[in-house]
Amino acid sequence: MRIGFAVRSLLFALAVLAFSSASFGQIGVAVSFGPPALPVYDQPLCPGDGYLWTPGYWAFDYDINDYYWVPGTWVEAPEVGFLWTPPYWGWGDGGFMFYDGYWGPEIGFYGGINYGFGYFGEGFVGGRWDNGHFFYNRAVLNVNVTNIHNVYEERVNISNTNHVSYNGGQGGITARPTAREEAAAHQRHVPPVSAQQQHMQAARTNPELRASTNHGRPSVAATARPGDFKSAAVPAKEAGGTYTPHTNEGRNAGNAARGENTRAAESTTGRTVVHPKDLPAAERPAAPNTGNAKQDKKYQQQQEKLMAQQNKERDKLQQQQEKEHQQLDKQKADEAKKQQVEQRHSQQTQQLQQRHTQQMQQMQQRQAPAARPSRPPKG
What we know:
A hairpin with a 2-residue loop joins strand 10 and strand 11. The chain is α/β, with parallel strands linked by helices. The chain is 31% helix and 14% strand. It is globular and about 70 Å long. It has helices at 3-15, 179-185, 194-204, 211-214, 249-259, 293-331, 335-367; strands at 30-31, 51-54, 57-61, 66-70, 72-76, 83-85, 88-92, 95-99, 102-104, 127-130, 133-137, 151-152, 166-167, 222-223. The strands form five sheets. The protein has a four-stranded mixed beta sheet. The protein has two domains: 20-259, no CATH class; 282-365.
């Protein structure tokens, strides 16, 4: 039997009971105060054909209890046809949580944040792949048409012109994922490449990029290449909003969020598992192979029946939770009430996933071929 499936399912079921530590592709921190507004800056010139733009964002360092700016930069895509979905901060369960960015065949949800340069809150209009080659929209991206010829020009009307850097909570962006973004969340993804990881670490160790130092106006807002904060680096022209300093409350809130509150685990898409739609698609187990074709067919039918029933239960819980969201909107419920409901939804989803994991494991155990008893030695 396919033991790997059972092991992965069990690990996932255990993971939904804990809040993970920071790592790429996961939610790493919870902070009681939101990040500063996005700074205003110009985009550096694209260094060459094949580079894609990854916008700058605020990250958080618990060692210094401060946000720091990760400059926007040009990066080579890990695969032909892949696009970058930026990270973002979102309010939930009493704190601001970080959702890491990822590479994938389509742009997913990034909080409705207007990062500029093609990332205006939904999708990406700065370029597109065509027959294995990336074409740049020169109306949005800064490219040298003398060196890069695969360009086009398509003007874009921008309705979201603010510099708010987080989704939800007081003053945050109110956008929610579209159906297409939800579908993109379940596609195959690649985490930030090594150049991006090194770029982020370089930003983390640069005191000038800390919010408490630059007050929302970093001296290096964007770079032409990852990790190069000197040549072709672009400073911020201005802060995107009024900077408000904070005390050590962020550290306390984050520790409490990790240790005291029951939280949903992160999914492989980098988004919090709160609702059934956030769960990764159920993995179909390997076809039974007991050596008895008739018995294997029976077992496979049982597997398909169980998966159909579990999908039905997922859909039912999702519809129920969406109905409760609609009721909250009609009641114009305050943020505290909404967070209570979200926490309950998270617990419901955790319990559903645990139950489904146990059901599949129990079925696989029943279907495993029994060991043949050894014959007693002839005496």
